[in-house]
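Convert to structure. Protein one:
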Amino acid sequence: MTFPSFLQYEIFGNALNQYLIAVLILVVGAALRRLLSRLLSAVLFRLTKRYTAGVSEQELHELLIQPLATLLLLGTIYAACGVLRYPLLPSAVPGVEPWPKVALLRVFLLGFIATVTWVVMRLIDFALLVVQRRNELRQTPGSTRLDNQFLPFAKDLLKVFVIILGAMVVLGEVFGVNVTALVGGLGIGGLAVAFAAKESLENLIASFTIFLDQPFGVGDLVTAGDVSGTVEKIGFRSTRLRTAEKSYLTVPNKSMIDKPLDNLSLRTSRRVGFTLIFDQKTTSAQLHSIIADAVAALQAHPLVTQDVQMKFNALTPAGKEVTVQYFVGTTSYDEYLDVKEDLNYRLVEVVEQHGGAFAGTPVSAAAAVAKP
């Protein structure tokens, strides 16, 4: 192929036609990178379709198109730069690559390794998404709780290993560091690193303890020391809780296992306990009737267990104290409040039916209650 004579004019050691070819490669590569990245992700989905039940092709595209497009753009830039020649300086040593070419190659390698690491991390996201969807389709009893706790933990763990591996490749290929000697040297300074990162290591070990022992999982309502909330995520270093005030609380994993932990979500029932104080004018016959009918009313509720206690507990200057205790067979806090409210109304009705009066009730009000 022949070019016009003016395209043979050289600038910085390259003819204009070489610059033109480089620009064309960049333009074509930039224009086609999105299309090619979608094509590559589509081919990958076709190859893995039999194993990806429950995951759509669009979800894979959303994960891979951006990193693949970046990877293709880097390849385009490398191909465009490969067309050009890099002139040697007068002081250059013969047989040694010119420094602009070396610098560009190292920048390319750095970007290439970083982008490949990005692609691998997105593939990890896709693989764990496939595992999660497959488990949801199987609907194995009790598997959802374990998946919610294990899958985010496994994803973060794999990503950390990929990042460490990518960093080692960068040190070896881009900066020329002897990675083998570096890893060996870490053994010498390992003790100092361990002391410097003592808290982080303790929290990391605590995260494995939480995963293996499973004292709580994602979605559980827990109380550890002065901290209380619903578990939203269990990470390497910390556990994230959503408190009753809807704030997002981060607690070190070590604190979650070092303190007595109450998993409120594992309760079979919720306790209700309080004291009723009747005035001194309420007779013993009225108390007997009130207690008998109140116990019957509590036991008649379908969500109240049979362990109902209502006792004439004490005589005080304030009045006659009757303690009440029962358990609501639900783990839902809203349902617990509804049952408690319903039974409080029922207790008031029983007291009114038998002409009783609570301490502190004005005499006129008590008399009005006593009327048939």
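Protein two, convert as well:
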Amino acid sequence: MPDKYFEVDGVATLVHHRGESTLPGAPPDLSNGYSLLLLHDAGTNGNSFRDVMDRLAVEHSPVSFDLPGHGRSGELDSLTSIEAMAVHAENLVGDWGLNSLIVVGEGMGAAVALELASRAVIKVAGVVCLGAVGRSVDLSQEISDLALIASGKARRQFDSTGYAPDTDESVFRKAFAEWVKTDPRAALGARRAQEMWNAEAEVSHVNTPTLVVIGEETEDQYRQSSERLADELPFGATRGLDGAARRGAIENPAELSLVIDAFSNELEVTK
């Protein structure tokens, strides 16, 4: 997978991309179709979209990156707010000359995507949200567990929830390989930022077309939260994802890439 580092506000930020490589410090070539910025969930990294990006690269220009404290980017701790994460993304890609940008966010990344659309510092043509999204998602238990782990009072364990019942073992291996790259302290800070955003954010003024993707095996409470998010957005809609629950990017990347591509075609028609 093509990777390159960029210095963003003093933080070495690892970017994952496709297509032609470019000189150090120069943005990757994102001229093919829509530019797609994929934002990862708390505790993982941009490489969790690897298989989705492989498929989307045929018609589009996908790019992802590891947020500070995550994966192979710099810093030990996460940024402390969703707004700060959005600013980091803006400072990374703001002068790249992105073409018709669609932002795809999973879990916490969906909050960052909506914050980007709301701030409108960079022009966002559309947003795709997936995973555990919506302001009514209850993160309290996960935050409590992470706090114990970060303080050395509990052992770190891979979270195998949120997957479809018949998920193949190879999917868990892929997810685990990305999960271990991020320190639990960064995951804790990121979840706290997401919880704060959920409590305070106002999304009713986000006028960007937004698709909320819901895996067919998603648990009821998360399904309801996703549906409520779509209802709160002026131009929100939902779409199902077969063969997945809340981890669609890893569970069914082929189907998810088709959903994202179809959404881009719908945006093209409504331009």
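Residues 3-265 form a domain with the Rossmann fold fold (CATH 3.40.50.1820). The mean pLDDT is 95.
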